Amino acid sequence: MSETEFRQPTLSRRHILLGTAAVGLMALPRWAAATPAEAEAVVAKLAGSAKPAASRIALQLPQIAENGNSVQFSVSVDSPMTETDYVKSIHIIADQNPYPEVATFYLSPANGKAEVTMRMRLAKTQNVRAIALMSDGSVHQAQQEVKVTIGGCGG
Amino acid sequence: MLTRRDFLQVAAATAAALPGGLARAADNGAVTQDDLLAFKPVGQVTLLNFCDIHAQLVPLYYREPAINLGVGAARGLPPHLTGKDFLTYFGLKAGTRAAYMFTCDDFTALARRYGRVGGVDRIATLVKAIRAERPGNTLLLDSGDTWQGSYTALKAGGEDMVGVMRHLGVDAMTGHWEFTYGNDRVKELASKLGFPFLASNVRDTEWDEEVFAHTAFFDRGGVKVAVIGQAFPYTPIANPRWMIPTWSFGIRESEMQQRVDAARAAGAQLVVMLSHNGFDTDRKMAQQVKGIDVILTGHTHDAIPAAIKVGSTLLVGAGSHGKFLARLDLDVRDGKVADYAFKLIPVLADVIAPDQDMAALVANIREPHKAELGRVLGRADSLLYRRDNLNGTFDDLICDALLQERDAEIALSPGFRWGATLLPGQAITLEDVYNQTAITYPAAYRNAMTGKTLKETLEGVADNLFNPDPYYQQGGDMVRVGGMSYTIAPDQPLGKRITDMRLTRTGKPIDPAKTYTVAGWASVTKGTEGPPIWDVVTQYVAGKSVVTVPERQRVKVVGI
User: Fold this and answer.
1) Which residue of A has its CA nearest to B464?
2) Tell me, what CATH number does B445's domain have?
3) Are B271 and B226 in contact (CB under 8 A)?
4) R_g over Cα of chain B
5) Which residues partner with B229 through β-bridges?
6) Which of A129, B177, B331, B335 is geometrically suited to a Cys-Cys bond with B148, CB 3.0 to 4.6 A?
7) Count H helices, E strands: chain B?
8) A2 CB near a chain B CB, below 8 Å?
9) Structural contact between residues B57 and B119, judged by C-beta atoms closer than 8 angstroms
10) Which CATH class is domain A36-148?
């Protein structure tokens, strides 16, 4: 399976490369996990002066990962995707991955709807966020904990 | 607490099991098959449901838990009530047949008085009688964990249970332990069922495509009924993923909402979720997903004498091991449940006449294995049971066997909820050992493990059991330990629940840096080596001849 399976938006070569880069970076030898503070800094940089609102954006993730090396996520943003009101970009932040910035999807009204799907690697149990930057400057955020756990003993 | 209406329904169910009702609840007088079946029908649809039979074909004993802790919002709510608290909540009396069926107090004495429970030939008798009474109205639904848990099912690769369920006339099922026969075998057996194997939440890992049908529609009493299956969401985590490498599970709540909406759009007037989520997860799902009328819950083995109402959804917990058959009658008006009646029918083996056809089928299945099944290895001198959140005497026996036969300092045994109970004085047969151990990944490993790894293991399993959000729970009980003790604080977060781990032999604290020899079984890792656990236990019991397992206090619970 490909690590760069995007579903909805049409992707330029640049976007594919971005996705690949985000996934590929984790192979680099930086073992220490990011701290939640570092992840906060990433979010702050993205959001600028806007305060992320917990609305209009839905993040779908498993509660417990079956395989931390391949965790599927889907993000959808409630947006008309018109010239005057659309989602500019969707960012996935894994708070405690070696590099928290997992993926960035750039969108335009031509996408028709703001929905993306990809798979990522998660180093450990952690909080994952999806952040949408809108054309009007507002920022929306959804988050969920994903457990990367030992198995056995169920049932 | 129960509403007056719920109370009356529980009282009615108990009264049926005890002629004269609660007033004579302490009476141990005779009850008949007709008393057990007595039910004033309601509405157009009768749902019959069982779950977690675990391939038990013949009557057995099964002790309900003494410890079943609820965390978060579930604290103090069914199913997290045991003993006297359970009896009080449901208006039942100690020492009665109902107390025997639903709780563990005085278990040995009550078991001797009321006898064995379950047996698919007894269930067949009940199903036939209810179908005869409600022809065209009845749906028989199996919430899963049917194909695994016995010697015969293990030898037959689950196929014996397929024959039994076909004969019983099951209308649909979902699964969990079924998947431990592997992708190909599950697909093969599902194709032989003659009824749908429903699993809305199982997807192909490559293309995210559906592996099984998610919904089946039935017409009962003029009502279009949609049954949506939900397999155990954490099968590839709790059980070996390598056996089902191309299937992905998960709770998939938003997808369940889509299924429900689609079923309604297709004209369903009654939407039933046939679930192996476990009770707490189903309670949350009932709150989150709109439009489910009934959830037939499986996995956590909870026997609950009333249908539990969550919003406008009715939750049924039908116990395990064939101990109960749930009957839920529904009056459906304008796509809503206008009225209902519920009874968890106790399958008392001494009271219900076996169905002859099913009895013959069971005899056929068992005949080739007769000598092995009946091979007596020793005798139990104390009550041997498994089900409890934290420990069980049968697990203590398995841990003792691992410590001795595998020459280990510490033993770990999985917190399965299945396994028949043995009374003091009862012979321990090879069948009894398999009833506790019959899995497809039975290797009893012997590993070196650091104290740090041990602590992380216990913490991880504790979080699977006691995470306050049920969507993060896996539904198994706590891993059992031998050769060590510890203290657990269920209310604490991950990493802070387990303290005071001590090696029993020396009384000294477990040193995170030190390496210990650990024996265990049911590892989900591919290629685990060691003799099958049933051989280890068999050898140990045969060497002892009489097995006494005292109630030990290896685990101390604090803060709850």
Assistant:
1) A154
2) 3.90.780.10
3) yes
4) 22
5) B274
6) B177
7) 18, 23
8) no
9) yes
10) mainly beta
Q: What is the extent of the structural domain holding B268?
A: 46-61+117-364
> Rounded to an integer, what is the distance from CA A107 to the centroid of its chain?
14
Q: Is B259 within the bounds of a domain?
A: yes
Tokens of A118: 């990809």
Measured between CA atoms, the residue of chain B closest to residue A61 is B252
| Chain Cα centroid distance, residue B151 | 17
Q: How far is CA A89 from the centre of its chain?
A: 10
Q: Cβ of A78 under 8 Å from any chain B Cβ?
A: no
pTM reported for the whole predicted model: 0.91
Residues B511, B409: Cα–Cα separation, whole Å: 13
C-alpha distance from residue B14 to each of B305, B498, B526 (Å):
9, 41, 48
| Token digits of residue A27 | 């192979």
pLDDT per position as a tens digit, B183-222: 999 999 999 999 999 999 999 999 999 999 999 999 999 9
* Residue B155 DSSP symbol: H
Which three-class secondary structure string do you get for B10-61?
Answer: HHHHHHHHCCCHHHHCCCCCCCCHHHHHCCCCCCCEEEEEECCCCCCCCCEE
ipTM above threshold 0.95: no
The DSSP bridge partners found for residue B219 are B224
- Domain end among B301, B330, B364: B364
Q: Where does residue A12 fall: left (phi above 0), alpha (psi -120 to 50 degrees), or beta otherwise?
A: beta
What is the per-residue pLDDT across A4-62, written as a single tens digit (0 to 9) for each? 333 344 444 444 343 333 333 333 444 567 778 888 899 899 999 899 999 999 999 99
In contact, B327 and B305? CB cutoff 8 Å? no
Specify whether B387 is located in the same domain as B334. no
Q: Residue B243 sits in a domain of what CATH number?
A: 3.60.21.10
Residue-wise DSSP of B341-355: EEEEEE-BTTTSPPP
3-state helix, strand, coil in chain A (%, to 5): 20, 35, 45
Q: Is B493 within 8 Å of chain A by CB?
A: no
In a domain, B283, yes or no: yes
- Domain ranges in chain A are 36-148
- B380/chain A closest Cα distance in angstroms: 25
Same domain, B336 and B222: yes
Q: Do B456 and A72 touch (CB under 8 A)?
A: no
Strand, coil or helix: what is B130?
Answer: helix
